[in-house]
Write a structure and sequence with these properties.
Blueprint: H1 2-19, E1 32-33, E2 43-47, E3 51-52, E4 59-65, E5 71-73, E6 78-83, E7 86-90, E8 103-105, E9 110-115, H2 117-120, E10 127-137, E11 140-150
Parallel strand pairs: 3-11
Antiparallel strand pairs: 1-7, 2-4, 4-9, 5-8, 6-7, 6-10, 10-11
């Protein structure tokens, strides 16, 4: 009888571990720390909605150029999570492919872009996140980010 109870307990523990593939948190020891320094005020991003209950199927970015210079950017982005007072890069669950395009951001212009974070990661636990994109102009490369939160 003891062997059967022990085997059942081990089996339930294994099932619990397997079902935990969608973790309720991220371990900073397993993530790469973000290399994004100070964000530029020349180009900014914001989201049309910043609070979610689960991973949104789509995020609507509003990208604003606050300069008289033209910038270009592509469809690439990555997600970061805020843990222990630092930003960490979230790896995509599967390899992502982005269309290689050059989108123009006119001087003092505003563009809207939609991205699908579910394609990047199917599950995001409650926490604070940001979308990070690179922009290229005559003055070089700059980085912009838009933050959002998921609460369960």
């Amino acid at each position: 009888m003891r062997k059967w109870i022990s085997a059942a307990a081990v089996g339930m523990a294994l099932m619990a571990l397997v079902s935990c593939g969608k973790s309720d948190h991220f371990d900073p020891n397993t993530l790469e720390q973000s290399t994004v320094g100070e964000l530029s005020s020349d180009v900014t991003m914001r989201l049309s909605q910043e609070e979610f209950r689960s991973v949104p199927s789509e995020l609507s970015l509003v990208i604003t150029n606050h300069t008289g210079e033209e910038y270009t950017y592509g469809s690439e982005y990555h997600l970061e999570v805020y843990l222990d007072d630092q930003w960490y890069i979230l790896p995509a669950e599967e390899e992502l492919y982005f269309t290689s395009i050059g989108v123009m951001l006119q001087p003092d212009g505003i563009n809207s872009e939609n991205i699908a974070p579910e394609e990047y990661r199917e599950h995001l636990p409650a926490g604070h996140y940001r979308v990070v994109k690179e922009f290229y102009g005559a003055g070089g490369e700059i980085t912009a980010a838009a933050e959002f939160s998921i609460s369960e």
